[in-house]
Automatic annotation (TrEMBL):
This is 2-oxoacid:acceptor oxidoreductase family protein. Residues 11-184 form the Pyruvate/ketoisovalerate oxidoreductase catalytic domain. SUPFAM superfamilies: Pyruvate-ferredoxin oxidoreductase, PFOR, domain III. InterPro entries: Oxidoreductase_gamma_subunit, PorC_KorC, Pyrv/ketoisovalerate_OxRed_cat, Pyrv_flavodox_OxRed_cen. Keywords: Oxidoreductase. Pfam families: POR (PF01558). GO terms for molecular function: oxidoreductase activity, acting on the aldehyde or oxo group of donors, iron-sulfur protein as acceptor.
Length: 197
């Protein structure tokens, strides 16, 4: 059992934090995991990439994920670059932070293949409601848990609470709630349906 995730977003969206939270949750569950930031420009708004590997066996590779099982896209505009989906297999999954439906995405000139499984979650909208600003990372982590079924929601909640403990209990609680809301949006979907949440 393994899951290789590549996360694409922009500086300020918590891309590296998302990879770390997933890896800590996996580790807390007794799995092997690693988070790999891609070092480059990390200024606000600049494209940022991070990777996370999760496995029930020791992980020998320490290079960025080039053949992901799942690509998380925190900023919809990044899908104009074909490199965002590079290495994704035909049965891979793309998780996109957007309120738009799939037909609308296809008409918008964004790169839409070759992945068969597309899931959309309005993570910015959810975050604005609970945090007052668009920080999509914890919502999208919850969606990953719902899509894959690989991690326990409780493990993810624990990793979020530890990461945000220094910002106050209300911030940690809001981020856990974001993950739960996104989990609920996608957990009932049939994997491979090609539908959106």
């Amino acid at each position: 059992m393994k899951l290789d995730v590549r996360i694409h977003g922009r500086g300020g969206q918590g891309v590296v934090t998302a990879a770390e939270l997933l890896s800590v949750a996996a580790f807390d569950q007794g799995l092997h995991a690693q988070a790999l930031p891609s070092f480059g420009s990390e200024r606000t708004g600049a494209p940022v990439t991070a990777s996370c590997r999760i496995s029930d066996r020791p992980i020998r590779s320490h290079d960025p994920v080039s053949h992901p099982d799942l690509v998380m896209v925190q900023d919809l505009t990044l899908l104009r670059d074909p490199a965002v989906l590079a290495g994704l297999p035909d049965d891979g999954t793309v998780l996109v932070n957007t309120r738009r439906d799939l037909a609308d995405l296809a008409r918008g000139g964004l790169v839409m293949g070759p992945a068969q499984h597309w899931v959309t979650v309005p993570a910015n909208d959810l975050s604005r409601e609970l945090l007052g600003r668009p920080l999509p990372n914890t919502a999208l982590i919850g969606a990953v848990v719902g899509i894959t079924g690989l991690l326990e929601p409780e493990a993810v909640a624990g990793s979020i609470r530890r990461r945000f403990a220094g910002l106050g209990e209300h911030v940690a609680d809001a981020n856990v709630r974001l993950a739960e809301l996104a989990y609920d949006l996608v957990a009932t979907q049939t994997r491979g349906s090609g539908t959106h949440a």
